[in-house]
Amino acid sequence: MMEQFIEIKQANPDSLLFYRMGDFYELFFQDAEIASRALGITLTKRGKLNGEDIPMCGVPVHAADDYLQKLIGQGYRVAVCEQVEDPAEARKRGSKSVVKRDVVRLVTPGTITEDRLLAPSEANYMMALGRVKGAEHSYALAWIDISTGTFRVAETSADRLLTDVLRVDPRELIVPDPVFYDPDLRPVFDVLGRTATPQPATLFDSAAASSRIARFFDVATPDSFGQFSRAELSAISGAIAYVEKTQISERPPLARPEREESGASLFIDAATRANLELTRTLSGSRDGSLLKALDRTVTGGGARLLAERLTSPLTDPVEINARLDAVSMLLAETRLCEALRAVLKGAPDMPRALSRLALNRGGPRDLGALQAGMTAARQVFDVLDQALLPDDLRTTCKAISALPQEFAAHLDRALADELPLLKRDGSFVRAGYNAELDEMRALRDQSRRVIAEMERALIEETGIRSLKIRHNNVLGYYIEVTANHAEIMNGTDEAKARFIHRQTMASAMRFTTTELAGLETKIANAADRALQIELEIFDALLAETVSHADAIRAGADALSQIDVAAALAVLAASENYCRPQVDDSLAFRIDGGRHPVVEQALRRQLADPFVANDCDLSPDDGAKNGAIWLLTGPNMGGKSTFLRQNALIAILAQMGSFVPASSAHIGVVDRLFSRVGASDDLARGRSTFMVEMVETAAILNQAGERALVILDEIGRGTATFDGLSIAWAAVEYLHEKNRCRAIFATHFHEMTALSDKLARLHNVTMRVKEWEGDVVFLHEVGKGAADRSYGVQVARLAGLPDAVVERARAVLRQLEEGETSGKAARLVDDLPLFSIAARREAEKPVANDALVEAVTALHPDEMSPREALEALYRLKELSASR
């Protein structure tokens, strides 16, 4: 047995081997030690190898899914090894022969299909990276969700590889060996961690890719799917080869690979995606993410499609507006929307049921899910059929109408109302569907009644009222009559031919008939035959299901699209969102914009309502490019929220959703960059400031005129004048070279002088109000510039000791006096970039300290007219004394 285990393990070195022994999956050696730690199960031992104990642990077969889920969640891969022959055959070979076993499936994070191992609302992608040296387009990615059949491919590059991978967010990325160990790409795979694994380069061979793809899809050539580059063919081939490797002899019903055109979706780099917390927060939680705030879907497929649209917003205004038309229509037709959602709530996840069936892992409930799903689809079609639909919904209706309704009706006739989980449990075929099955069930379940009916028929035929049909372990079923009725049973040749004598007793005689013997055999085998018939029916229904796979998948996708459109309509109604105007211009004007996540959080906390703010980065009159806003203001004033909300509104608009604003005009953004927040990357030897600079460099090197750039506190991680210099130069570069729409938040108030130098730069600030030494944050954005950051006040609010706060105030006063006396101004004057600010400072009149203090002490809102007049006279006297 151990020889067999070692042989199979050597063929699967990168997987934990679940070795079937009776009712358990056993693990041995290092596999046992790893599984014991990962699963928290007892590590035992069994037998010895080279004089040392063999570590062993095991899990029950019936609970294997739970343990698989834990292992897959931790990034492990599992090879499931089953018995592949009858133990009786092994015994025929000798007493020491071992039952043949082999790996029937490799379970990996990207190839699972079981409901218990999958999150209903999340896609489960396996991705393959293809590379062709020397080609114009040398990199490509192909990704498959084996649980739904989704199959897509797109070109990429070394520079944007990490961004494209994180956009799809695969559970598993397979990479050719030479590429995986390429030092230029190692940083990407280090970030991905266990998600990325090397595979033999032969799986990705572009020369053999066409034949592999054609063989898998049973076509003469893959050219009918579209024109693919060599790198794309390599990636597609690698994905298919990995599916074949992991699924062994089974084939999932994959859709034909669909090519994603470059530039068809909004480019959001990895740092931006993380900073904006689109699908997960920085801590990795779904709660608190934008997706969680948006999701009003009622189906698993709809939830997955919503996440896909959120992470891949469109860049074509025509497609965007088609989606918005669907949302608008359902928002206006409230009753229609409610009726659709009521039907969709009962629609099962058809693509995942279809995939399990095709992989021979499904059961009767999966067939039932298809039947219920197609019934729901028909109801959805009936609801929409009479409505005046926009193009997007009309297209989905066509896909729904193409569902095989005859097959749905067949399933309805064939399947019972209550379905077991496993096909081996039987009783899933409806009574009346198959005559032989009904007969076998009757014999199995009602053998006494069947025998009683035969007994009654024989009594009527022979006239012997004492005739009985009995049973014992020796004779089986037999007919018994008293001795004085023996002549009736064998008195004639015809009777003798029918009633076969079996046994003579002192007072009775026993007979059988051909009919009774046949019935006995049927009764004995009825249960087995009934199950056999049901399994044959299941296989026939399964074959019919697979033949309709494309139509079922297309219909399910249409239901998901309707679910998303209806969910976004419900979101817009409940959260008071507006329809954005999306076009090819460079406009970016948002009136009354709000942060979708923060607004909902404030409402849940019963706090103050969210303060809406405008943002206008549209080109000024006569300008060819969008504007840049230089945002200053205090800590805790709401700068980061304002930055993020505008980026999120752009994403929502381009995914086809209404947006949290009173109005919005978005000229399509092709690239979105966000540098908000601070973090280090110690594993790669990067400080917080280095990470900030790397991300800023990526923005400045890639942003074009259609980009939207959100930058917060650039240069704050280093010395003041170093940081100010970098921030200053970055703004100039954004204005002159990138020429993009941007919001640049900073605490370097000296930079506000740039508004006189750069035509498209505008100063805006977060407004505050001081009150008796405290600061009140208004969270309002207005024109102008802040002259201080109120950091000491924020420190006091945070609970710093009073002594620290007072000492900070004193130090701040000294530093400010130093600036006033010209020390800081002279330092700034050493930098040519800042000469404008230095000249302004030099030109300022010297203030009268007493006059300044008197003005500062005034509270006009609290003064009577007489008090105001008296104060004015005092100020005049002070002014005259200068």
TrEMBL record:
GO terms for biological process: mismatch repair. GO terms for molecular function: ATP binding; ATP-dependent DNA damage sensor activity; damaged DNA binding; mismatched DNA binding. This is DNA mismatch repair protein MutS. Pfam families: MutS_I (PF01624), MutS_II (PF05188), MutS_III (PF05192), MutS_IV (PF05190), MutS_V (PF00488). ATP binds at residues 633-640. PANTHER family: DNA MISMATCH REPAIR PROTEIN MSH1, MITOCHONDRIAL, DNA MISMATCH REPAIR PROTEIN MUTS FAMILY MEMBER. It comes from the Bacteria. SMART domains: MUTSac (SM00534), MUTSd (SM00533). Keywords: ATP-binding, DNA damage, DNA repair, DNA-binding, Nucleotide-binding.
